[in-house]
Amino acid sequence: MHRERRLGKGRPSFIFALALLGWLPFFVGLLSICKKGTRLDLLLMADIPVSGAVFMLTYAAIALSFLGGITWGHTMIRRWMAPDSLWPDKILYVWSLLIHWAGWFSLLLGPRSIAFIWLGVCYVAQWVVDFRLSRWEEIPVWFGQVRSVFSPVAIFSLFLVGYLLKI
Question: How far apart (Å, rounded) are the C-alpha atoms in residues 12 and 33?
Fold first, then answer.
């Protein structure tokens, strides 16, 4: 019973809907980049000019940091949930901090095309970590399923923007 509750059955529709909303900034950023000259500061009522690239890069960095926070939170409670874990706690704590820093570092990179490619690589790496944790049943299976639906789109968007900004 405890194991079934922890792992869950299927994808919870509420969480899936929230994850779908998490895609929105990727699409808005990508559309504004494809339509050159579109400024999002008017839409966002910002005091400074916000290009689609800055909008998407900032959101992607924050979302990556959020994913690192999920790993950190998982590591804090895993002794209770998976005392016979395959991964030592120290590795996951260090990983969650490194992926958090990687997102922040992307905001400092230039040119922007490199920042997007860097974030794409970081998203792939975090996806692999989450997939393995889900596969080894250390986190709910539905989390891995949700990530496997949404991560490829985010990763594709990041690499595509990196390419578009380069040409």
Answer: 33
pLDDT averaged over every residue in the chain: 83
Question: Which pTM does this prediction carry?
Answer: 0.83
- What's the rounded Cα separation, in Å, for the pair 32 and 39? 7
Query: Residue 55: which of 118, 101, 112 has the closest Cα?
Result: 112
Q: pLDDT grade, residue 107 (50/70/90)?
A: very high
3-state secondary structure of 51: strand
Q: Per DSSP, which regions of the chain are E strands? A: none
Where b means 16+ CB within 10 Å and e means fewer, 132-150 reads ebbeeebbbbbbbbbbeeb
More confidently predicted of 86 and 68? 68
The residue type at 63: A
128 Cβ contact list (under 8 Å, min separation 6): none
On the CB side of 84, CA atoms within 13 Å amount to 2
Task: Tokens for 36, please give them.
Answer: 């050159």
- Confidence at residue 41, expressed as pLDDT on a 0 to 100 scale: 58
Please determine, for residue 98, whether its predicted confidence score (pLDDT) is greater than 70. Answer: yes
Cα–Cα distance list, 126 to 46, 80, 166 (Å): 31, 23, 25
CA distance 156 to 120: 8
Q: What is the mean pLDDT of residues 119-143?
A: 87
